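tool_call predict_complex ligand=1,3-dihydroxyacetonephosphate
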Amino acid sequence: MRKKIIAGNWKMNYTLTEADNFVNEIKDRINTDELDVVLCPNNICLERVSDLIDGTNIKLGAQNVHYEEKGAYTGETSANMLLSVNAKYCIIGHSERRQYFAETDEMVNKKAKKLLEKNITPIICVGETLEQRESGILFEHISSQIKNALDGISSDSVKNNIVIAYEPIWAIGTGKTASSMQAEEMCKYIRDEIRKLYDDKVAECVKIQYGGSVKPSNASEILNMEDIDGALVGGASLTNDFVAIVNYE
Ligand code: 13P
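tool_result ok
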């Protein structure tokens, strides 16, 4: 039985004070060990949130990392820096980073390898545009994102230390959620692709989240699908809605 994982991607929201107030408001209401809960604040707030969730079951995640160890990469954050604030997860390949910051599959693969080397779990995002879905290259596109992201990564790592987040781009921040059937269809497809790349055991263990306009009203339908092991939540992770999502039934 795969333990579900619900992560909140705060994106570029919340100052330190706002983060303080928000985490203090929600932390005792999402202190569960039935599922993994991860908060992914912006870099400025990482250390503060790390302190605030210390002693709870909530884990810390970052929103990005550089694949080099250290050096002259102005504005970037290394995996060791994430380790120093006790980050356990890091989102990579988010469609916003691919779209606005030219993050490529190759970079996603290098970032995944660097994170695994440091024992930080990559949350690897994949997803299609509406055009790709409508023009019928949907499965091909997702398959290639998965293959490229996982290139050269061992079956042990995929089995134990990788999360895949399926986030259809047309459903992000638009209020349009993929139907639970559409989300399940793709998460199952991703699991089958992993089965082809690795084996049954890896496919049955790897965690696959859905992301895109997850809210309290659709959380339980989505999270109860067989191949959906959790959610990557954007907008709703900034409000009390996150508590309701985590407490879905
Ligand atoms: P929304 O939940 O705001 O649609 O964002 C989803 C997302 O991009 C999470 O990474």
